[in-house]
Design goal:
Elements lengths: L15 H72 L1
């Protein structure tokens, strides 16, 4: 080795069939992982859509309730004025 000659590195002594099997197994695990992640993404997208729809419904309900409150306050003010006029 010290004389400057090249050293040949032996490739791993693994059978081709075993290597192919390991690669296929790794590929299948990767594909299963991708499918699982896609399912997770899809379910989270659906959940986000439902939450947004629910939030919009609640916002609309609050706006409607505020509108009704304003109308009732106006009616109450009118009734108070009518009572004040009748008492005089």
């Amino acid at each position: 080795m010290d004389d400057g000659s090249t050293v040949a590195i032996d490739p791993p002594k693994r059978r081709i069939g075993a290597t192919l099997y390991a690669l296929l197994k790794s590929r299948l695990r990767w594909k299963e992982k991708v499918v699982s992640l896609r399912k997770t993404i899809k379910s989270q997208e659906i959940e986000v859509r439902d939450v947004r729809a629910s939030r919009e419904k609640w916002k609309n309900d609050v706006r409607e309730a505020q509108r009704q409150i304003c109308e009732l306050e106006e009616q109450a003010a009118q009734l108070k004025e009518q009572l004040a006029v009748k008492k005089k």
